[in-house]
Amino acid sequence: MAVLASLMAAALAGPSYSAARPVQIVNCVAAVVNTQIITLADVKLIEAFGLFDTDTAASPEDRRRFLLDKLIDQKIVIDIARERAPMDRAKVEEELSRLLAGLGREEAKRRLEAFGLDAADLMPYLEEKMLCQTIIANRFGRSVSVSLPEIENYYAETYVPAQKKSGLNPRPLIELLSVLEAEVKKVKVDRQVALWIKNLRQQAEIEVHLDCLKY
């Protein structure tokens, strides 16, 4: 608990938010991952800027728990393999520009001001997300293969029922081979990644403070 107390003090010491700001950001330690802290402000920031897709029908607390899990997973993956995937800063800056453009200039400014931040302060969050994605792609992207029977099963059991449910006529399998192959590969990769991260979590030291997400 002494380590957690010192980490809490560090988290609450920065960044500081001026009393003149129209919005005060309540902060607390939501999780500690191998001595790395994740604060409530971190979770709220990635939620505000849509760094991950969330279920809009879920409660705010459930959405924050989902986002907290994403941040925990990222830190675990990067801890394991950071040295094998250096991040191109130019690509991070490009992603930042895309993110801000998608929000619109005024909306992006409003959200940044609510946190007392500048656009550059989003860079570490984007870099961590992109670095994690790169590590996973390097580890699993080339190792997963897809067979024709797998594509045929996916076509019959997933694609065709989805098309009929939408009132559409399914296209012939031959026209969709490359598309379906990519979809099947993604499903297989996602399963392998989920299992890999589950195993990594068992090796990591993780403290989660769900009460923090209620603020």
Can you characterise this structure?
The chain is mostly helical and 215 residues long. It has one domain (2-144, 184-214): Orthogonal Bundle (Triger factor/SurA peptide-binding fold). It is 61% helix and 6% strand. The chain has a 3-stranded antiparallel beta sheet, with helices on both faces. Strand 1 (29-33) and strand 2 form a beta hairpin. It starts with a helix and ends in a 7-residue tail after the last strand. The relative contact order is 0.14. Residues 1-25 have low confidence and may be disordered.
Low-confidence stretches: 1-25
List the domain count as a whole number: 1
Q: If classified by CATH, what would the architecture be?
A: Orthogonal Bundle
Q: CATH superfamily membership, which one?
A: Porin chaperone SurA, peptide-binding domain
Q: What string gives the helices and strands in order?
A: HEEHHHHHHHE
Shape: globular
Provide the structure class: mainly alpha
Strand line-up of the largest beta sheet? 2-1-3
Number of strands: 3
Oligomer description: single chain
CATH class: Mainly Alpha
The helix count comes to 8
Task: Tell me the Rg in angstroms.
Answer: 21 Å
Helix content range: 55-70%
**CATH topology grouping:** Triger factor/SurA peptide-binding fold
Q: Which band does the percent of strand residues land in? A: 5-15%
Query: What is the first-to-last residue Cα distance?
Result: 22 Å
Determine the mean pLDDT: 86
